[in-house]
């Protein structure tokens, strides 16, 4: 058994009642499928008057005499009913048995399908839930070199493929094999010699079919990878449509997209060819078996006369009954191979180790009362360090601004304070507690973050703001909007705070989006604020409004301001000038200007990052 099958089992066990009922109904379906075929033989016997008259009820003499006993018992009842009610009514009764058997077979088929659907859909939901839990749980560092499209393909395509393929296993191990077994047992009862002859063909058919499907798993993996690239290209094109159009780059993106589509088409056609070959190949092999049966069975009926014509017709019907489950097994085995490739990717993500987790005995940080301190911190996203042996203390209630050229490590400090990344050397402490020793939830509860990119969601203004405090009242939301200088435009919107702002807030201007981001942070009301270039993308008027909002928000709070423009840092208690991951100067605005060093140069160039 493939290792991925065992990973599905815990999900399926939650629905064990449905599994048991599905297996039970499948057993009954397989039994009545065979009985339906068998019930044709007495109908033919009555129709063609081939039943022997038996006036005395036969006695069961053991398994070795089972076939003769069943035949004589049937003939006894046919004789009795014919004598009492006539042959026409006897035929009606036998046909009634056929109809009842068909009815029960289809009822059990429906019930089995109903329970497998509950199982499939439930497990699909649960796997997607586990996958999304992992996507949310994994650190931001995990996605720095991953395509969004690849993650989306695993969630949408791969999980669906797992659902479609793996739950055919229940049909593979219960319904179809049992249908074959019951049919073969009945065929043995009718003619052991003919059945042994048939069984010679089964291994040959199996060998041919397995040869066809050998490379399917590898090709399925390539299709899923290409689907990830395809979705990523689409996502990037939609996200950057203004850039694509303004640079007349439509042809570049069309070419990239079409090339991905062509590769996907080629691989999909290859897989479809193999999948499509499964059914006709197995049917053709089945017809060959039937043709051979007709030749050898005809010999037993016409030459040896060891088999009655009605028994032979029933035998052929049973043999053909085996073809349907055999085809289903063949087709399912192909889909399972595709499912294995998809499951590798799904469980590969679910089982990805999260290297930024709470320690077993992590403490809860309920308040912030003293200072934030960075002690000899060294950190690099890859091999080369971005921050080198940096030490800095930020007392409670003070505003510290980080300035410097692009790439100097300012935004990295924001990522480290919020523990989006873990440092390689040194310590980051809040009130003397190392951030690695406190729970991430309580750490981030103490910090409000406003980034350069105003990240808003396609929802109402109210629901976007409520991310800061889920149980906030409408009055608290409006107060937060007023603090952020946002209520002046929100109140004029058609539906006020219940206005839907579109994908990424695209119905609003840059300044409006940024003020809503600030309002969200205000509502959260954290003691520490981290402002990562919060005004760098704004025009002068928007910057003025946002800057006023920021100043209101920073009152009586500890603030770390990663600055791009001079206006943001002039009033800071301490300005820290960074270069290549190290602090080269620090002091107030006036003190640093007096030094006539790096900060003074940055001011003169108006090049704050």
Automatic annotation (TrEMBL):
One cellular-component annotation, GO: plasma membrane
InterPro entries the UniProt entry points to: AAA+_ATPase (IPR003593), ABC1_TM_dom (IPR011527), ABC1_TM_sf (IPR036640), ABC_transporter-like_ATP-bd (IPR003439), ABC_transporter-like_CS (IPR017871), P-loop_NTPase (IPR027417), Type_1_exporter (IPR039421)
Location of this chain's protein in the cell: Cell membrane
Keywords: ATP-binding, Membrane, Nucleotide-binding, Transmembrane, Transmembrane helix, Transport
Sequence intervals crossing the membrane: 20-48, 91-112, 180-209
Domain ABC transmembrane type-1: 20-338
Name the record gives this protein: Antibiotic ABC transporter ATP-binding protein
Organism field: Flavobacterium suncheonense GH29-5 = DSM 17707
Taxonomic classification: Bacteria, Pseudomonadati, Bacteroidota, Flavobacteriia, Flavobacteriales
């Amino acid at each position: 058994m493939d290792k991925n099958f065992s990973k599905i089992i815990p999900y399926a066990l939650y629905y064990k009642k449905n599994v048991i009922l599905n297996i039970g109904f499948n057993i009954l379906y397989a039994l009545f499928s065979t009985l339906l075929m068998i019930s044709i033989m007495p109908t033919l016997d009555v129709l063609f008057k081939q039943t022997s008259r038996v006036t005395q009820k036969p006695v069961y003499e053991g398994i070795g005499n089972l076939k003769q006993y069943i035949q004589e018992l049937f003939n006894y009842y046919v004789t009795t009913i014919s004598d009492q009610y006539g042959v026409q009514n006897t035929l009606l009764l036998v046909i009634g048995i056929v109809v009842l058997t068909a009815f029960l077979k289809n009822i059990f088929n429906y019930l089995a399908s109903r329970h497998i659907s509950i199982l499939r859909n439930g497990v699909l939901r649960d796997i997607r839930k586990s996958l999304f839990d992992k996507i949310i749980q994994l650190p931001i560092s995990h996605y720095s070199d991953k395509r969004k499209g690849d993650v989306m393909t695993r969630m949408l395509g791969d999980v669906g493929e797992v659902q479609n393929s793996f739950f055919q296993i229940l049909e593979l191990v219960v319904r179809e094999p049992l249908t074959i077994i019951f049919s073969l047992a009945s065929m043995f009862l009718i003619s052991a010699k003919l059945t042994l002859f048939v069984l010679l063909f089964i291994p040959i058919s199996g060998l041919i079919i397995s040869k066809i499907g050998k490379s399917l798993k590898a090709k399925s993996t390539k299709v899923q990878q290409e689907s990830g690239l395809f979705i990523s290209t689409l996502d990037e094109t939609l996200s950057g449509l203004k850039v694509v159009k303004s640079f007349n780059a439509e042809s570049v993106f069309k070419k990239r997209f079409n090339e991905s589509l062509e590769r996907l088409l080629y691989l999909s056609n290859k897989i479809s060819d193999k999948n499509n070959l499964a059914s006709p190949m197995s049917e053709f092999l089945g017809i060959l078996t039937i043709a051979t049966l007709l030749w050898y069975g005809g010999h037993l009926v016409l030459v040896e006369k060891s088999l009655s014509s009605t028994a032979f017709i029933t035998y052929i019907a049973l043999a053909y009954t085996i073809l349907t489950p055999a085809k289903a097994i063949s087709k399912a085995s192909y889909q399972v191979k595709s499912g294995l490739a998809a499951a590798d990717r799904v469980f590969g993500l679910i089982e990805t180790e999260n290297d930024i987790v709470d320690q077993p005995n992590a403490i809860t940080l309920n308040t912030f009362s003293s200072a934030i301190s960075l002690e000899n911190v060294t950190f690099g996203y890859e091999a080369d360090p971005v921050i080198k042996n940096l030490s800095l203390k930020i007392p409670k209630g003070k505003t510290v601004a980080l300035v410097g050229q692009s790439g100097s490590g300012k935004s990295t400090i924001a990522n480290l304070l919020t523990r989006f990344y873990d440092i390689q050397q040194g310590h980051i402490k809040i009130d003397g507690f190392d951030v690695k020793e406190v729970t991430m939830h309580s750490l981030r509860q103490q910090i409000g973050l406003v980034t350069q990119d105003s990240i808003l969601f396609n929802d109402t203004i109210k629901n976007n703001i409520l991310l800061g405090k889920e149980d906030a009242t409408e009055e608290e939301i409006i107060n937060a909007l007023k603090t952020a200088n946002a209520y002046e435009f929100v109140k004029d919107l058609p539906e006020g705070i219940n206005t839907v702002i579109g994908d990424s807030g695209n119905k609003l201007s840059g300044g409006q989006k940024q003020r809503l981001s600030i309002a969200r942070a205000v509502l959260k009301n954290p003691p520490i604020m981290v402002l990562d270039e919060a005004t760098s993308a704004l025009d002068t008027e928007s910057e003025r409004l946002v800057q006023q909002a920021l100043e209101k928000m920073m009152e009586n709070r500890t603030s770390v301001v990663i600055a791009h423009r001079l206006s943001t840092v002039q009033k800071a208690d301490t300005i820290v000038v960074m270069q290549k991951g190290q602090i080269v100067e620090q002091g107030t605005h006036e003190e640093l200007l007096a030094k006539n060093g790096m900060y003074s140069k940055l001011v003169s160039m108006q090049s704050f990052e």
